């Protein structure tokens, strides 16, 4: 569940959705979220989001940094980095400051890069 291979050095999460959990509804948070289960709804996070390899999100995501090893069906906006790990699948449009894709990661959608100077599209 908490594979060191996925997210090295991260040991503190404010919210955890476990592998056997299904959450239906929107989530708003100021802290860091780790998702290992299934979320059906939108995520609006002022912190970072870590999505595990067996996790899935069906909804839109807005956060500072997003590290995805699972499946996301929805649009993503990252004010910082969006990182797709090798097991990642994203079906939706993304708006990002910085985009990193590991070999094997899948992205189907449109990408818009934010201007680093103005932090806008």
Task: Describe the structure in brief.
The chain is mainly beta. It is built from no helices and 16 strands.
Describe this structure as you would to a colleague:
The protein is mainly beta and 121 residues long. It has one domain (15-113). The chain is built from no helices and 16 strands. The strands form 2 sheets. Strands 1, 3, 4, 6, 7, 9, 10, 12, 14 and 16 form a 10-stranded parallel sheet that branches. The chain starts with 14 loop residues before the first strand and ends in an 8-residue tail after the last strand. The mean pLDDT is 90.
Principal-axis shape equals globular
Rg computed from alpha carbons, rounded to a whole number of angstroms? 13 Å
SSE-based structural type: mainly beta
Distance between the termini: 36 Å
Low-confidence stretches at least 5 residues in length (pLDDT < 50)? none
Q: How many helical elements?
A: 0
> Average pLDDT across residues?
90
Q: Give the strand tally.
A: 16
The arrangement of helices and strands along the chain is EEEEEEEEEEEEEEEE
Based on the model shown, name its key terms.
mainly beta, 121 residues
List the helices and strands and how they pair.
Elements: E1 15-17, E2 22-24, E3 27-29, E4 33-35, E5 38-40, E6 43-45, E7 49-51, E8 56-58, E9 61-63, E10 66-68, E11 71-73, E12 76-84, E13 89-91, E14 94-101, E15 106-108, E16 111-113
Parallel strand pairs: 1-4, 2-5, 3-6, 4-7, 5-8, 6-9, 7-10, 8-11, 9-12, 10-12, 11-13, 12-14, 13-15, 14-16
């Amino acid at each position: 569940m908490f594979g060191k291979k996925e997210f090295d050095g991260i040991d503190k999460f404010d919210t955890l959705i476990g592998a056997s959990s299904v959450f239906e509804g929107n989530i708003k948070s100021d802290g860091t979220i780790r998702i290992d289960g299934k979320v059906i709804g939108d995520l609006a996070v002022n912190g970072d989001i870590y999505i595990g390899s067996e996790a899935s999100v069906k909804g839109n995501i807005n956060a500072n940094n997003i590290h995805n090893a699972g499946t996301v069906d929805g649009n993503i906006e990252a004010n910082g980095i969006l990182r797709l790990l090798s097991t990642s699948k994203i079906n939706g449009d993304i708006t990002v400051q910085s985009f990193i894709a590991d070999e094997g990661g899948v992205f189907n959608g449109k990408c818009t890069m934010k201007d680093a100077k103005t932090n806008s599209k």
